[in-house]
Amino acid sequence: MNAIGWPNWRRLNQEGIVFAIAVLLFAAAALGLPGFLTADNLVAIVRSVSVLGILALGMALVIIGRGIDLSAVAIMAMSVAWYLQLLNTGTSDGLAFAYVLAGVLAIGLLNGFLVAYADVPAIFVTLATGSFVFGYVRSQLITQDAVPVPQGHWVELLGGVRFLDIPVEVFVFAGLAFLVFLFLRYTKWGRFIYFAGDNPVAARNIGIPVRPMLVLRYALSAVVALIAGLLTAASLHSINTRVVNSTLLYDIVLVAVIGGIGLSGGRGGVRNVLVGAALIGILLNAMTIIDIPLLYQNLIKAAILLGAIIVDGIINPRDEQTAQQGDI
Amino acid sequence: MRLLRTLMAAATALAVTAFAAPSFAADDPGPAAYAKALNGKRVMLVPLAMGFDLAQGWAHYLKKEVEAWGGTFETRDPNWVVDAGAQAITDAIASDTRPDVLIIHAPDLNSYSKLMKKAQAAGTYVLLVDNPANFPADAFVGSDWDKLGQLEAEAAIKGCGENSSKKIGLVQGDQANSSSLYQYAGIMKVLEKHPDFQVVAKPDSNWDATTSRNVTTTMLQQHPDICSIIDFWDGDATGASAAIRDAKLDGKVFLVTTGGGEKAADCDKLNDGTYGAVVMTDLARQSGDMNAIIKFLLQSGQPAGTSHTYIYTLEKATTKADLKPDSCWDLKALQAEAAAK
Known about the structure:
- The complex is a heterodimer.
- By secondary structure, chain A is mainly α.
- In chain A, 71% of the residues lie in helices and 3% in strands.
- Chain A contains 15 helices and four strands.
- In chain A, a hairpin with a 2-residue loop joins strand 2 and strand 3.
- In chain A, helix 8 crosses helix 9.
- Chain B is an alpha/beta fold.
- Chain B has twelve helices and twelve strands.
- In chain B, the strands form two sheets. In chain B, strands 2-1-3-4-5-11 form a six-stranded parallel sheet, with helices on both faces.
- The chains are: A mainly alpha, B alpha/beta.
- Chains A and B meet through helix 2, helix 11 and helix 13 of A and helix 8 and helix 9 of B.
- Chain B: It comes from Mesorhizobium atlanticum.
């Protein structure tokens, strides 16, 4: 098994299948769709999945450690909405940011604490904290679904930042992907995440600080969500908390899982997130160019994803280990 | 003697009549009948969500008026979730304090039809606001979306001008909401009369600003010479405007949208050139229409579901050139007013 190393090309796994589908789609679109294979459009594809990809990086960290963070989208939207609301009502920038950062860290730590020390399943903990964050911020701290960025604020200016005509969120996505890659591959705690995700009890027995590491991952995921939210607000000059009700959360899990990060933990890495994000980005862009209505877009997206999972199931049948361990 | 008595009696009767006459005038039966019909009646608003400008504006104007005539005004907040809205309506019908008038902002053509029928059967008048549905409500108050689409298309054609590329892009909402479907029909009606104008793309935003930005970015890359884009709601048109800004096409693409005429959402953005034209709903007048039909229904004595009235709000495409200080209403001011109480 080559869980965290280079791809094993002799054996086609889900990541390989999805990568192949993405390449095929890309080739077909480049040949068949005028205007697809232009620098501008390629940048637009990467940009359209940047925020999704950033959130998926945070999710990947948690999933590899055999967890899941269903509060990511709520933290992303509500923290930034609260931040902008504080700014709009006259709180100084530094203080507002300090409040929000503290709030985000508190929720991340709470998630981690409840999962690690209270032994509550991650899926319930994060579902509950996500609802709590949304409900509390929406009802107590902000007055509107949509909160605008104050004129001339750095968040607004951030949205206009370009290097070589490439929007800033692409660089942030690339930078974060690289950081997470370094963390997972070259730091001790990063390597430990795989052990903890693969077999938490054994990891603990050999002296790995499994519980503090769990708390760290949820805190990281929360901070990554805040970054994604700030980038969304930077681009749109406002944040709309309606996004919490959208399918974004499922899309995040999808990007991670379709790329080959198993929900049972211990497997995958940054490359899987990139492959998953690439497939979704190319697919959505091509369908928009062809002008396919949204209903059919969802149908096609679902069919391709289902296809990839079925093919994976046939090529890589369930083995003894997965049968014992189970998926989510 | 007898004659004198008769005369006196006649004089007294005359005097009584003469003095009583003004008190007849003060006894206008109107206010009493009005109070009898309206006092203590319950009005409930179930919008798509309470967190956006339209719903907050309606609630403000309705509450003011309903409480003034001695009624109770309540809102429910389904927060964009169709099921939650259905639950709120079901609970309202079944509760001891069943509302006498239910104002429903339907998420699509069919979801609440059965519930609205139930409400009417229980004796509650049902008003549909803003979004039409496949249901004969006691009254519909809101936009004629077809007409609204026509106004948008006319504004887009005017914004493009005769010497333009005559290419128009649409950012639709979705394929289920009546406001999106009828808006599209209206736009196409006008464009049929202008065959030189063509729609080059018509993606959906699903009412989401990020999606609107992504599809508009793609649209502008495929057709950089688009002269106008119609986005179906000001709630997500911020995304389309971000795409236009990113493509450095500000001032070249005339962005048309529609909204509730809130200051920060519409007038400020017309003023700074983000939007070229906005077909705005006169929210105060729309709320006034609702208040009037509520008062009529409660006094009519007719059972719920008897009559079906359509009250379309006057719509107008507003551009920067015809902005006036009172073109928009100010949500912040309403909130401050409510907070001051």
